[in-house]
């Protein structure tokens, strides 16, 4: 049960529920006391001696077991090939447990479906997923600066990562590589040819350190490591898109291994 309350009304409903449960328990003890008192009065009227509380007597009252020597009291007239039938009733403890399930069902219905003070399983699952997602984001933010060309991850199928990378690419890279990665001053990023390697690690390293002799600046002072990872994955996602007016291939064709990481 989620005990976090978003509003004062939810807190009030929860307190009402707790009060009802306590009230039900008190009523149960009162009824039990009245039952014992009536039983004692009836025993006194019939001239029977009332015994002090005994665990054995109490247990027998819960099971409703009839001693073997008194089974003729509950013996029925049914006879099946010499087999006689006893009129045994359900044990009192079983009936009390059944009554308790009815009380529980009523409380459950009020709590989950009427007052809605506790979330249903699907709602609780979604809340847990949201909490887990927030923890993941906090962990990633905390460890964002620890990413380098050796630990960068290939996430080109992650739509959120690609979207973030595209935003960075659009703001900082289109002047040299074109809006679709078709190339301009810089090389075409959509074909199979690479000047400095086409794996995710190669791309990350190139963006991070730049290529000063060819006019590409180092972005490590401008972009955070996780941002370089995002834009690297966006570039990987451009492979094979064949935009119009693509620049002629430059560099070496990617090997089988590097193609697998593009």
Detailed description of the structure:
The protein has 262 residues and is mostly helical. The protein contains nine helices and four strands. A two-stranded antiparallel sheet has the order 1-2. Helix 5 (159-172) packs across helix 8 (225-237). The chain is elongated, with a radius of gyration of 39 Å.
Q: Can you give me a brief rundown of this structure?
A:
The protein is mainly α and 262 residues long.
The percent of residues in helical segments reads 40-55%
What is the rounded distance between the termini? 47 Å
The secondary-structure element order is: HHEEHHHHEHHEH
Structural class determined from secondary elements: mainly alpha
Order of strands, main sheet, comes to 1-2
What sort of overall outline do the alpha carbons produce when their principal axes are compared? Answer: elongated
Q: How many individual helices? A: 9
Largest sheet: 2 strands, antiparallel
Total beta-strand segments: 4
Mean pLDDT: 83
Strand proportion: 5-15%
**Rg estimate, integer Å:** 39 Å
Oligomer: single chain
Give the low-pLDDT segments: 256-262
């Amino acid at each position: 049960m989620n005990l976090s309350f978003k509003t004062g009304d939810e807190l009030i409903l929860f307190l009402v529920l707790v009060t009802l449960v306590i009230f039900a328990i008190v009523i149960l003890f009162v009824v039990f006391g009245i039952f014992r008192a009536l039983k004692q009065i009836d025993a006194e009227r019939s001239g029977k001696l009332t015994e002090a509380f005994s665990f054995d007597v109490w247990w027998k009252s819960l099971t409703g077991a009839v001693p073997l020597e008194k089974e003729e009291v509950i013996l029925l007239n049914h006879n099946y090939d010499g087999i006689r039938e006893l009129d045994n009733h359900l044990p009192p403890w079983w009936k009390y447990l059944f009554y308790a399930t009815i009380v529980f069902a009523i409380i459950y219905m009020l709590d989950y479906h009427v007052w809605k003070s506790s979330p249903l399983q699907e709602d609780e699952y979604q809340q847990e997923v949201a909490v887990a997602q927030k923890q993941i984001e906090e962990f990633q933010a905390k460890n964002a600066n620890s990413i380098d060309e050796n630990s960068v991850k290939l996430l080109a199928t992650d739509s959120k990562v690609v979207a973030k990378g595209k935003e960075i690419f659009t703001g900082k890279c289109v002047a040299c590589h074109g809006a679709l990665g078709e190339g301009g001053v810089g090389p075409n990023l959509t074909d199979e040819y690479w000047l400095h390697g086409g794996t995710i690690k190669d791309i990350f390293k190139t963006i991070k350190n730049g290529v000063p002799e060819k006019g590409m600046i180092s972005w490590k002072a401008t972009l955070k490591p996780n941002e370089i990872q995002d834009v690297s994955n966006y570039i990987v996602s451009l492979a094979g898109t064949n935009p119009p007016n693509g620049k002629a291939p430059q560099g070496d064709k990617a090997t089988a291994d590097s193609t697998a990481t593009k």
